[in-house]
Design brief:
CATH architecture: Roll
Number of helices: 2
Structural class: alpha+beta
Helix content: 10-25%
Shape: globular
Order of helices and strands: EHEEEEEHE
Length: 146
Amino acid sequence: MSDAASWPFTHSDEVRFADLDVMGHLNNVAFMVQFESARVGYMRALVPSHDVADADGFGVMIAEVTIAYRAPGFFGERVDTRVRPVWLGRTSLRLDFEMAVGERLIADGHGVMVLWDRGAERPLPIPEVVRERLIEHGARPRDQSA
């Protein structure tokens, strides 16, 4: 597990009974839900003026998610999902994440998101305010064809 100080955002949530699989472990799908909740929280913290539920605003489509499951999570545990930006292109960005229960790493991975113009139904260039904040948090520009 990497140094917690290298992650600009942490989202905490508790493993609910509904999150468990038949073996009593945090279900694989629930890991994705935890990451998505952390991603939304990070974007809200990054640009507080952006309403993620506003149908007239820009949306974020998930283009790719990779999750490496490292250890099980169990009912009632607090899961801390750390998020940091890695790169940004013209319309897309990559966020890395780590999920941990205390010092126990339970998953890590990344997601590639595409900003989406809901009205025009096409990719949207990353707004300058979002781009600046991502760079402040360590994102590096990617080749402009992304």
